[in-house]
Amino acid sequence: MSLSMSPPPQRRTRSALDRSAVTHLSALLAATFHQDALTRWIVPDERRRAELLPGFFRVFVELSASYDAVLTSPDGDAVILFLPPGAEPDEAALGAALAESLGEAYAPALATVTALQAEHHPTDRPHYYLAFGAVRADRQRSGVLSGLLTELMGRADREGVAAYAEASSPGGEAVTRRLGFTRLGGDIVLPGDGPTLRPMWRDPR
């Protein structure tokens, strides 16, 4: 998605999200990514994608929340999920939870994505990993999500830590470039005429 840059809004990091907040943010992410090339490749069926994505994103919301790494706008209309430097999720448990959220029909496609991502993910330098960002449809181009991203990059800069992201669309790549990211290595190309993910890296400033 294409976002304009603006001064960061008041924000908060959510660590102990209650059930309603988890449900709300999962639904927001599902709606934002319903037509994303990557989720369409994983779950091609429109109806099933709408049914499965809230549960899929719930896994990521809860994972980021466990690291105090959910950044939201005050009204909850925008969210960033990330992992801080040093985060080491239980990959087996995470993979099992994601596979369960999608079911047997779509878990193999997800396994292909995660395996290719793991091959490209840098492991030699500490960094923030920007997993997902979402904003309510009627708030797009308002600057609210860009403000959250700018705030997170400010935190990384103050800590002297880099940041890593994988852009799944030209708009997403444009946003990361405006934040100072540059390409890192080759693209992640999914098989069968699948979409491309572009690894992006940002050194601290």
Number of DSSP strand runs: 8
Report the C-alpha radius of gyration, rounded. Answer: 16 Å
Strand content: 15-25%
Residues in helices, as a percent range: 40-55%
> What name goes with the CATH superfamily?
Gcn5-related N-acetyltransferase (GNAT)
Structural class category? alpha+beta
- What is the level-2 CATH architecture name? 3-Layer(aba) Sandwich
Count of spatially separate domains: 1
Distance between the termini: 25 Å
* Count of runs of 4 or more consecutive helical residues: 7
CATH class: Alpha Beta
CATH topology-level fold name: Aminopeptidase
The backbone outline, from C-alpha atoms, is globular
Overview of this protein structure:
- The protein is α+β, with helices and mostly antiparallel strands and 205 residues long.
- It has 7 helices and 8 strands, in the order βαααββααβαβαβββ.
- The chain has a single domain (12-202), classed as Gcn5-related N-acetyltransferase (GNAT) (Aminopeptidase, 3-Layer(aba) Sandwich), CATH 3.40.630.30.
- Strands 1, 2, 3, 4, 5, 6, 7 and 8 form an 8-stranded mixed sheet that branches.
- A hairpin with a 6-residue loop joins β7 (188-189) and β8 (196-202).
- α1 (19-32) crosses α3 (46-66), α3 packs antiparallel against α4 (91-102) and α4 packs antiparallel against α5.
- The two termini are 25 Å apart.
- Residues 1-15 have low confidence and may be disordered.
